[in-house]
Amino acid sequence: MKSWLARGLLAVLGSGAAVAGTAPEPAPSAPADPRVVVTQSLLLADVPTLAAIYRQSPDPVSRVLAAMALERIHFNLDKADEDARLCERELFASRPGIALFCARFANGNLRLAQGEGVAAAAELDIARRFAGRVPQAELDGMRRYVEERRARPPLRLQRPEAGFDIPLEHPVHDNRGAIEVEANGGKARLTVDTGASFLAMDADTARRLGVRMLGRSGQANGFLSRGVPVEYGVLDRLGFAGVVVENAPVEVLPGHARLIGIDVLRHLGTFRLTRDRIHVYGKAEPRPACQEPMLVASDVWGNDIRVVAALPIEGTLRTTLLDSGSSFYLSGDQTALGQLHATYTHRIGLGDIGPRRHAARVNEATAEVVISGQPIRMTFGVFKDARMRWDYVLGSGALDDMDFYFDFGGRHTCMLLHDGLR
C-alpha cells in the first residue's frame, strides 16, 4: 500500500506544474527554506511542527518534505523512501535543489535500513545524477562525505533466533546497567546507553579490545561537556551473551566513558530494557501490549538516531529522550527552567563524556508527568548549565518503576509500568 503522501503527491505537485513559474528557490540558509525547517524538526523528532506544516502550509513543497520526515520519525523507512524518491522524480526538472534534498533523504533511509556501504554507493550515484543541475560545491561535499567513510564497513549483528536475555551488571555507585563484552581476547564493561549512538570508550580500552583506528577526528558534546575531542575507529568483532557484532563504529574519547548505544542495540530488533537485563524477543515470541508509535530522531542522512517519547509534563506534551545512559529518573535542561516552577538547591559533581568533572548547578522542580496513561507526581533536577536537543530526559533511574520497550520491527515504543509504583 502506498503511503498517504505518495497517494496524493502527484496531485499536489502536478508533475511540477504547481511550482512552474515561481520565483527562484531561496538560498539553503534562508529562514523560509523548507529544507532548513524540516531538517531541524527531523533532528528533534518534532512531530507537532511537521504535522502543522503538512496540514497548514500553503507551499506544496513544504508539505511534501514534512510528510517524508514524519514517515522517517515513525521509522517507517519503506514509506519514507517511497515518498522521497517520488519527490525527487517529480521535482528533478523544475526544482533541482529540492529534488537533491529528497534524493539525499532517501539515501538516509537506505543508510538506516542497509548500512553505510550500500548508502555510500548510492550517494555517489546521486552526485552523478545531479551533475550540472546544482552547484558543484554541493556535489563535491557529497563525494568528500563518502570518501571520509570509505574505510568504515557496514555494521552487522548476529543473534540467536529464539528469545534470550542479556544480563546487566551494575558498577559500584552506578545504577546504570552494563554489558560485559569481549573482543580480540580483551574484555570490558560497556554501559547500556540508549542516548548514545554506536560504541564509545577511552583509548586504553580501545587498545585492549583491538579497535582499528581510521585516522579521522572530530568533536562531541554531552549533557554538560562541549567540544570533547574524538578519534574514530572500528571494532571488527565484538561478542556478548551469544550476540556477535561486526564492524561496529567506535568513538574514542578522553575520560572514562565506556558505552554501547542505540545504533548497535536497534539491530537486536525488539527488546525490553529492565534494570537488570535486556530481554531480546524471538520472532514468534509474544510481545507486550504496546501501541504507542515509535518516534526516532535523526539527521537527514540517517545518522545520530535517538528514540524519544512525547510525555505530558504539567499538562503540555514534551518530547523526552529515552536515555538509559543517564543515572537520573527524570531531568531537564536550561530551557526546562522556563517551563516549570523550580527552586535553586545546590551544585553537584557530575561526570559526562570527556575527562572533566562538572560542578553542575541544579534546580529542583516538582511536576505531574503522565507515563503510559499513569499520572506520576515527581520531583527532579533541572540543570541550568545543560543544553540538549530535548529539554527532558527519562533515564535509568526510572527503571525501578518501568521497563523501556523498543520494537524496531513493529515501530512501537512503550514504557511498561511495574505494579505498585513507588
Automatic annotation (TrEMBL):
<keyword id="KW-0732">Signal</keyword>
<keyword id="KW-0378">Hydrolase</keyword>
<protein>
    <submittedName>
        <fullName>Aspartyl protease</fullName>
    </submittedName>
</protein>
<keyword id="KW-0645">Protease</keyword>
<feature type="signal peptide">
    <location>
        <begin position="1"/>
        <end position="20"/>
    </location>
</feature>
<dbReference type="InterPro" id="IPR034122">
    <property type="entry name" value="Retropepsin-like_bacterial"/>
</dbReference>
<dbReference type="GO" id="GO:0008233">
    <property type="term" value="F:peptidase activity"/>
</dbReference>
<dbReference type="GO" id="GO:0006508">
    <property type="term" value="P:proteolysis"/>
</dbReference>
<dbReference type="Pfam" id="PF13650">
    <property type="entry name" value="Asp_protease_2"/>
</dbReference>
<dbReference type="InterPro" id="IPR021109">
    <property type="entry name" value="Peptidase_aspartic_dom_sf"/>
</dbReference>
